[in-house]
Amino acid sequence: MLKRLGEISAQAARSFGDKTALIVGERRFTFTEIDQLASQLANGLTANGVGPGDRVTLYSGNCWEWLVSYYGVAKTGAVVNPINVMLTREEIGFVANDCSAKAILASSDKAEALMDIRASTPLESVIVFGGDAPTGAVSFDELLANAKSRFAAPAGNNDQLSTICYTSGTTGHPKGAMLSHTAVIMNAALTGVMHRRVAEDTVVSALPCAHVYGNVVMNGCFLIRNDPGFTAAL
Asked: Predicted confidence band at 201 (pLDDT cuts at 50, 70, 90)?
């Protein structure tokens, strides 16, 4: 059984290799490519001071960069903090302060707001998807381009914190729900079993990856096993 989120993309690459893992618009990614990109990002994040236990926020709509960021952050041993793309800059500031986020990866349309709040939060790195980034931020594409495609993940336990997901905050400020590696992996794998997912399936999803169920669907697709008799990596 997998013990940590950072192992998911690597196992999927071993199982499926050059099989298509993700289709975004006209672009296709294999399982091997996703894992290599995640390793490149993990190396880039490590070079920027991100390590085990650090909180790293993901602030973007669905895109291939979001998925690579999720697995890249997980590889470093940092805690993933996926947030709603519709949050305002004030709400982002609250979340960043509440969970002590050290870095944030975001779509380019969010860069200006993030630079505005950076000074009032613990954020040390603002990484912007694409090749261009405002002064003081880091380009996601450049971070990948300058990093190796192999990453040695640090050791850790499956009961350690893997994810902080914030509630909708309908009665006040959002609350950060703290989830272990086992909790996230088992939820996704068992949902894959419940849906009777097999290696030949193609899943179309409009759910935001940052949403708790969108995350389950995404991870479930990577947890399917290629071995006869298995429907998920339990």
From this structure: confident
CA–CA separation, 42 vs 45, rounded Å? 5
Which amino acid does the sequence have at 183?
A
Gap between the Cα atoms of 51 and 181, Å rounded: 16
Q: What are the DSSP calls for the chain, one per residue? A: ---SGGGHHHHHHHHHTTSEEEEETTEEEEHHHHHHHHHHHHHHHHHTT--TT-EEEEE-SS-HHHHHHHHHHHHHTPEEEE--TT--HHHHHHHHHHHTEEEEEE-GGGHHHHHHHGGGSS--EEEESSS---TTSEEHHHHHHTS-S---PPP--TTSEEEEEE---TTSS--EEEEEHHHHHHHHHHHHHHTT--TT------S-TTSHHHHHHHHHHHH---STT-SS--
Least confident of 55-59, 77-81, 154-158, 192-196: 192-196
Q: What is the distance between the alpha carbons of residues 86 and 70, in angstroms, rounded to a whole number? A: 18
How, if at all, do strands 125-128 and 101-106 pair? parallel
Domain 5-223 has CATH 3.40.50.980: yes
Lookup result for tokens 């088992």: 186
Question: Nearest to residue 169, comparing CAs of 83, 232, 68, 102?
Answer: 83
pTM surpassing 0.70?
Answer: yes
Instruction: List, in sequence order, every residue forming a beta bridge with 128; answer none if it has no partner.
Output: 106, 139
CB atoms near residue 53 (< 10 Å): 14
Question: For the packed helices 212-223 and 8-16, what is the interaxial angle rounded to 10 degrees?
Answer: 40
Whether 82 contacts 210, CB under 8 Å: yes
